[in-house]
Amino acid sequence: MENINNLQTKLQTLIKSRTQLETQYQENKIVLEEFDNLNENSNIFKLID
């Protein structure tokens, strides 16, 4: 039974990691599309906290 619990915990961790990576990937795709719409003279600003 302990083995099943360990496997479930590992699976949950992997699912969480995959979800985070998928979200990051989608955000990166959106940014890339925005960059593709820029021309050579466009200014790009970076927000610094």
Q: Residue-averaged pLDDT, rounded? A: 95
| Sequence of secondary-structure elements | H
End-to-end C-alpha gap: 47 Å
Q: C-alpha Rg, in Å?
A: 19 Å
Unreliable residue stretches: none
Q: β content, as a range?
A: under 5%
Helix residue percentage: over 70%
> Outline, from the CA principal axes?
rod-shaped
Structural class: mainly alpha
The description of the largest β-sheet is:
none
Helix run count:
1
* Total strand segments: 0
Family: Belongs to the prefoldin subunit beta family.
Keywords: Chaperone, Coiled coil
GO molecular function: protein-folding chaperone binding; unfolded protein binding
Coiled coil: 4-41
Summary of the model, kept short:
This protein is mainly alpha-helical and 49 residues long. Helices cover 71% and strands 0% of the residues.
Folded structure, characterized:
With 49 residues, this protein is mainly α. The chain is built from one helix and no strands. The longest helix is centred in the middle third of the chain and has 35 residues. It is rod-shaped and about 65 Å long. The termini are far apart.
